[in-house]
Amino acid sequence: MSAAPTSIQPATNGQYAIEAHDLNVYYGGFHAVKNINLQIERQKITALIGPSGCGKSTVLRAFNRMNDLVPIARTAGEVRFHGKNIYATDVDAVEVRRRIGMVFQKPNPFPKSIYENIAWGAKINGFKGNLEQLVEESLRSAALWDEVKDKLKQSGYSLSGGQQQRLCIARAIAVKPDIILMDEPCSALDPIATLRIEELMRDLAQQYTIIIVTHNMQQASRVADYTAFFMVDDSRTGFLVEYGESNQIFTKPNDQRTEDYITGRFG
User: Fold this and answer.
1) Taking the model in full, what pTM does it have?
2) Which residue of 21, 75, 119, 150 has the smallest Cβ count within 10 Å?
C-alpha cells in the first residue's frame, strides 16, 4: 500500500513564493523548455513575455503541474513551493492545483449559476464554513459583487466576457490559493474589460502572488513588478533570456536580445 501524499505546509519564512531549478519540460521527443531557473517574489506580479512558441505557457503550467494532464508531457528539474518540490512522488497534484490556482486565456465559467461557480470548488475541497459569505467575499475580491449580487442564480454564461473572466478569478480565489497563475487573461477581452482586469490584478497582489503570461508588453510594463523574457533556440526549445524588475527590463535591459524584442525588432 502506497504512503499518503505529503501535505505542503505553509512556509514560516522565505522571500520567494515559488522557485524553479533547472526546469525542463518535454512533450514526447520535443524539448519544450530547458534549464529554467526562476525565483518568483511573494505578493508581487510577475509577467512572462516572449515570442509565440517560446514556452511561456508551458513554464506557467509547470508551476501547478497542469502539464501532467498532457499524456506525452514529462517534467525534469524542480519547482519548489513552501520548500517542497511539487514534482516529488509523495506530493498530491490536486492539492498543488488548489494552492496554486489557474485563470485561463478564454473565460471558462462552469455551466452553473454564478453562485455555484464560486461555491462548487469550495465544497469539493471540503469547505465547512458559511458558503454565502465565501461567495460574497470572493466576488467582492474580484470586483464583481455589485454587478451580480441580484442575479446569483443566473448562469455564469449570462455575463459579459470581462465579467466571466472576473468570475473565473473569483472562483480561483474561493479555494484560498497562495498563488494565482493567469495565462493571457485579457487576450479575449476588449480594452475596457482589460483595464478592469489589470486594476483587479494590482488589488489582488496585496494578498496573492500573481504570475501572468502576456503577449502585450504594454500590459506587462503597466502591471508587473517583475518580468521574465523567453526566446527559442534553433531547435525551437524555449529558454529564459533575462529576468528582473520590470522597470529595468523595459528601460535598461541587460541583454541585447531583450531590447530587440521590446523595441519590436523581432517577435
Assistant:
1) 0.92
2) 150
